[in-house]
Design a protein that fits this description.
Length: 363
């Protein structure tokens, strides 16, 4: 018996669970909830859910907007709207009108106007509620898809030295840059990641879409081997060892999206200009350049980000001569001078304060 009840409950909860159908269920439930058929809302909800293929529990839950404290208010507003729609006037509650007309006629008119106005009011409430539910579910579905892709990408680093595996695992989990960049990359894009480290971004992007192709460029031999380990057996991923400051652009594939994450603060102005020019040389005419950097002018923890990068250099995790973060405004001006339209998005996390993402497109 318990198994049957559990199965029935599972069916009721999960039937017709697509975002569009759940939004429609909210809409229908709100219309029913503002109707004058008090005491009949449940069978009406079940009937309409069966007819339109909607989730019965959601329809009935939405119909419960007519709970005791709200029911009188909804009835009054519905009757007023109905009177206005049907008769071009507002409902009158004068004593003289009640005396002049039979009670039955007044009750009939009130019911009809409540029904007409309830449909309009319920539709308005349902449209807002259904839209909110739809957008929330779409956002949740995207978040779930990214979570699943991150889990698969993390598994690609299993078998490496624990230091590298746990770095990849924690980086994926804690750094918001992966989610931010994933939202900007088309499903069928060709991606070129300069200064790719362990190849984590390219690995995740291909896990999110089977249509993507990605090339990672990194000069640190140990990180290149880690990226190759993650890319093994996947023809969509390519790993190249090379110094991004001395690249011959013609040796790299053309890309719809070029990414440069946490790289430019290791270089002086002349080197940054050289790296940007090489990136733009391989960017498709309608492509997007994505750059994540720390903003030196940003308050609220950017000094911590600078310290972490300085420490990473000191312990040898990142190899560079210096760490020099710039103001986001200065870097934006440098990008705009190259004919790019630039927007700056906040990508700060608890352990990554002060970070911003530059989304750059050709004018």
């Amino acid at each position: 018996m318990k198994a049957r009840i559990d199965k029935l409950w599972h069916t009721l909860v999960h039937e017709h669970a697509e975002p569009g159908r759940l939004a429609a269920a909210v809409f229908v439930g709100c219309v029913v909830g503002t109707s004058p058929f008090l005491g009949l809302h449940f069978p009406i909800c079940v009937l309409l859910a069966l007819v339109f293929g909607l989730n019965k529990l959601v329809v009935y839950a939405a119909a419960n907007i007519s709970i005791a404290p709200l029911a009188p208010l909804l009835a009054f507003v519905s009757a007023q709207l109905g009177t206005r729609l049907l008769y071009g006037r507002w409902l009158s509650f004068s004593v003289s009108e009640f005396r002049a007309r039979p009670l039955r006629a007044l009750a009939h008119e009130f019911f009809v106007t409540w029904l007409a106005g309830g449909v309009v009011l319920g539709a308005a409430i349902g449209l807002v509620g259904g839209t909110v539910v739809y957008l929330a579910l779409i956002r949740r579905r995207k978040a779930d898809a990214i979570d699943a892709a991150i889990a698969r990408a993390t598994e690609r680093y299993r078998g490496l030295h624990p230091r590298l595996y746990w770095y990849a695992r924690m980086k994926y989990k804690m750094d918001p840059v992966y989610r931010s960049i994933a939202a900007e990359v088309p499903a069928n894009a060709r991606v070129l990641d300069l200064g790719a480290g362990l190849g984590m971004l390219a690995t995740l992007l291909t896990e999110l879409s089977p249509e993507r192709r990605a090339t990672s460029v990194e000069w640190d031999e140990e990180k290149v081997r880690a990226a190759e380990h993650a890319a093994r057996g996947d023809a969509r991923l390519s790993v190249r060892r090379g110094d991004v400051t001395a690249l011959d652009p013609q040796t790299l594939p053309e890309a719809d999206v070029v990414t440069i994450v946490d790289v430019l603060h290791y270089f002086d102005d002349a080197t940054i200009a050289r790296v940007l020019d090489a990136a733009l040389a391989r960017l498709a005419p309608s492509g997007t350049l994505l750059i994540r950097e720390g903003d030196r002018a940003k308050s609220g923890g950017s000094s911590w980000t600078r310290f972490v990068e300085w420490l990473a250099v000191k312990i040898g995790w990142n190899r560079a001569h210096a760490v020099d973060f710039r103001d986001a405004g200065a870097l934006k001006a440098l990008l705009e001078a190259r004919g790019l339209t630039v927007s700056v998005q906040d990508t700060a996390g608890k352990l990554h304060p002060g970070n911003v993402l530059f989304v750059c497109r050709r004018r």
